[in-house]
Structures are given as structure tokens and as C-alpha cells.
Design goal:
The complex is a heterodimer of chains A (106) and B (121). With 106 residues, chain A is mostly beta strands. Chain A has strands at residues 3-6, 9-12, 18-24, 32-37, 44-48, 52-53, 61-66, 69-74, 84-89, 96-97, 101-105. Chain B is globular. The chains are: A mainly beta (106), B mainly beta (121). The A-B interface holds A 33, 35, 37, 42-45, 48-49, 54, 86, 88, 90-100 and B 35, 37, 44-47, 50, 57-62, 95, 100, 105-109, 111-114.
């Protein structure tokens, strides 16, 4: 199953609302997770089950979607949110990741 | 402290083998599935392999199937990745990752810092 993220690059300002899209090549129901990776650090789980916020993750992050189309939204960007974001499908083996969306400060 | 710590990376020649290890602590290791995920320099994330809590189910990416073998030792809270017939395309930072579930794949909630594998002559 292939995952296509868009955009691959996004420039935004602190306080902006941004949305990242992930499209699956076939129906994956709600078996989708989102991760944040800051340069030089390991990825961090943000959302699983398409819309469940991982414990400790700020509520400005939200996820939605099912089937083949999913979104990750950050309601009001903070300086620490500038990172690369990956979606991941977990319907079974093999697991796959999207190509990533790099979010940079405008 | 809840953590996983990888070891065993290094520089290896093409065609040779390497074994990665991951030591888990701070949680009940045999309650969870485990995975290896890699990231080539400047590239995105690639899932490599996964194993259920009791080793009953394993999975591999097509890119490593037949060359890599995942295993675990629950008595010693350890995860392993035996990598054979390595090629330069296997050069990456390899992460040991904990799943939130024992057997089904739900999400990857604990990541190590990674161990670097460089395949070059």
C-alpha cells in the first residue's frame, strides 16, 4: 500500500493553521498514524487510529479521515512545530510510510 | 526510565553481515510487538521488519526479505536484526521501535536514538 503526502514542503508562520494530506493507494479504513520528526531526533507519535491523539501531544494537533484520504491539522502553529511529518499505514505487514511533509518557518 | 537502546551498527563491506541489537527497559517487553525502522541519510522513514510479542508473527519489507531476519529474546528484553548480504542501499540509521500492541500493529510509540549502519568498500 502506497501513501502519498501533500504537500511535500510547506512554509508557514507561527499562529497559522496548516493541513497536511495523506492519500492511500487502497482502502486502509482508519489504520493510519502520524509522526513528527525534528531534525536530528527520532520520530514522535502524534496520532493513531486516524484521529486519536497520543497522550501528551498538544490538542492543537488533530487528525481525520478514513478509507483512502486523511488529514493532519495543526490549528495554531508554534515554533516547536516546525519539523517533518510522516503518515503511516498499519493495516498489516508490510507497514509503509508516506514520503514526508517538511514544514518550515516563513 | 522507559527506553530502547540500539547497538551493533558500524561500517561494513558490501556482501557482508551485521547483527543489530536493541535493549529494552522500563516496560514489560513481552507485552508488545517490536519493529525496526530505518532512515537513509537525508531521506524519509522506511519500515524494515516487525515481530509479535511471542515471535509467532514476523514481517519484512520487500527490500530486505530473504536477507534480514528479526528475532527477540523476551527473557533478556532484547530485539535483534540479523542483516546478511548487505548493499550500499542498506546504509541508514536503524531505529528500534515499540508498538502499542502485542500482536496487531497499531502505532509506534517508543523509538530509540538509532544505530548507524554504513555499507561501503
Amino acid at each position: 500500500i502506497q501513501l502519498t503526502q501533500s504537500p511535500s514542503f510547506l512554509s508557514a508562520s507561527v499562529g497559522d493553521r496548516v493541513t497536511i494530506t495523506c492519500r492511500a493507494s487502497q482502502d486502509i479504513s482508519g489504520f493510519l498514524a502520524w509522526y513528527q520528526q525534528i531534525p536530528g531526533k527520532a520520530p514522535k507519535l502524534l496520532i493513531y487510529g486516524a484521529s486519536t491523539l497520543q497522550s501528551g501531544v498538544p490538542s492543537r494537533f488533530s487528525g481525520s479521515g478514513s478509507g483512502t484520504d486523511f488529514t493532519l491539522t495543526v490549528s495554531s502553529l508554534q515554533p516547536e512545530d516546525f519539523a517533518t511529518y510522516y503518515c503511516q499505514q498499519l493495516t498489516g505487514y508490510p507497514v509503509t510510510f508516506g514520503g514526508g511533509t517538511r514544514l518550515e518557518i516563513k | 526510565e522507559v527506553q530502547v537502546v540500539e547497538s551493533g551498527g558500524g561500517l561494513v563491506q558490501p556482501g557482508r553481515s551485521l547483527r543489530l541489537s536493541c535493549a529494552a527497559s522500563g516496560f514489560t517487553f513481552d507485552d508488545y510487538a517490536m519493529h525496526w525502522v530505518r532512515q537513509a541519510p537525508g531521506k524519509g522513514l522506511e519500515w524494515v521488519s516487525g515481530i509479535s510479542w511471542n515471535s509467532g508473527t514476523t514481517g519484512y519489507a520487500d527490500s530486505v526479505k530473504g536477507r534480514f531476519t528479526i528475532s527477540r529474546d523476551n527473557a533478556n528484553n532484547s530485539l535483534y536484526l540479523q542483516m546478511n548480504t548487505l548493499s550500499p542501499e542498506d546504509t541508514a540509521l536503524y531505529y528500534c521501535v515499540k508498538d502499542t500492541s502485542a500482536s496487531t500493529i497499531v502505532a509506534f510509540d517508543l523509538w530509540g536514538h538509532g544505530t548507524m549502519v554504513t555499507v561501503s568498500s
